[in-house]
User: Which sequence fits this backbone?
């Protein structure tokens, strides 16, 4: 399938899975500064969608707009087929329980332990009794590969990688269907980042998650993303990496075809020849397995 833009929200995905997120005609602006203009974007159920683009192109703003922290100037955002602007307060709250977010700046509460951080969304969105919450917290802590005693530590007592995992555990506190991850591997060493990628891939398969992952990490894109969205000119171009390599846009060419892109492709065992339309990452996208 070719790179889509403009009408990307309508373009069918090869998996045939229905979109869980559809954005059409999105415009966001701060004062006179327009960040997204007539942007279309859709994410299929069960896929890991990478989001890349130069610094300041609006990746974090896109995530914050989808989850309702920024009000769009125009456009429609539908999640699970529901237009977010038409939801009642109760429906909005229920919808918010269906997604988990790992913000770019981590944003764990520094005065709360990891367990208390994970408990915050549980207390806000569920009526679970304290004993059950405690049991669930233990499950989430182990799910993200943290040792049990990490639950009782404060963020400052954890390594950067452990903090990322704790943030992920909090994002998963409510059994989310969609995960939004903003630069989840930034600041991690390459092995820590690779392990985090493996964790995201495993969780996607085990829990049937749909993941939208903003990243600068080319290795992550090759390792786990089915498709990639590139923010250019206030819109997104969407495709597999090999499809995007055929795009003439200079930023895309530099990003995937530059030294770092070629190194990442090399370690992922992919070709980076321009405009080939064959080979490359994403031609055989990983699909979620059912069960377990
Ligand atoms: N609350 C805000 N008020 C005004 N301008 C904002 C606000 N949030 C973001 N911006 C501006 O919107 C633009 C996009 O910001 P955003 O944080 O989405 O960039 P980004 O693509 O995530 O960059 P990076 O890769 O550095 O994280 C920037 O110019 C930023 O200054
Ligand atoms: Mg950002």
Assistant:
């Amino acid at each position: 399938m070719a790179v889509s833009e403009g009408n990307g929200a309508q373009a069918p995905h090869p998996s045939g899975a229905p979109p869980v997120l559809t954005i059409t005609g999105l415009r966001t602006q701060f004062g006179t500064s327009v960040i997204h203009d007539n942007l279309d974007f859709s994410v299929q159920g069960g896929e890991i969608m990478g989001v890349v683009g130069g610094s300041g192109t609006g990746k974090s703003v896109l995530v914050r707009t989808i989850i309702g922290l920024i009000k769009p100037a125009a456009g429609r955002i539908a999640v699970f087929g529901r237009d977010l602007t038409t939801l009642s307060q109760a429906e909005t709250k229920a919808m918010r329980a269906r997604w988990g977010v790992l913000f770019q700046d981590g944003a764990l509460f520094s005065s709360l332990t990891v367990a208390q951080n994970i408990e915050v969304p549980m207390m806000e969105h569920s009526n679970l009794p304290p004993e059950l919450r405690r049991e669930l917290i233990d499950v989430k802590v182990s799910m993200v590969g943290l040792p049990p005693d990490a639950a009782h530590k404060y963020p400052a007592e954890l390594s950067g990688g452990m903090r990322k995992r704790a943030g992920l555990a909090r994002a998963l506190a409510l059994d989310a269907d969609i995960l939004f991850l903003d630069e989840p591997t930034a600041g991690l060493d390459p092995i820590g980042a690779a392990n985090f990628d493996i964790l995201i891939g495993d969780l996607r398969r085990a829990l049937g998650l749909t993941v939208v992952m903003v990243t600068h990490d080319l290795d992550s894109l090759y390792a786990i993303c089915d498709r990639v969205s590139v923010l250019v000119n206030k819109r997104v171009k969407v495709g597999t990496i090999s499809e995007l390599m055929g795009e003439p846009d200079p930023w895309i060419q530099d990003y995937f075809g530059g030294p770092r892109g070629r190194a990442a492709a090399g370690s992922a065992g992919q070709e980076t020849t321009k405009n080939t339309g064959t080979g490359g990452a994403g031609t055989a996208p990983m699909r979620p397995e059912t069960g377990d």
In short: Residues 6-12, 274-292 have pLDDT under 50 and may be disordered. The beta strands are 19-30, 33-44, 48-52, 74-79, 82-83, 99-102, 178-182, 210-214, 227-232, 235-239.
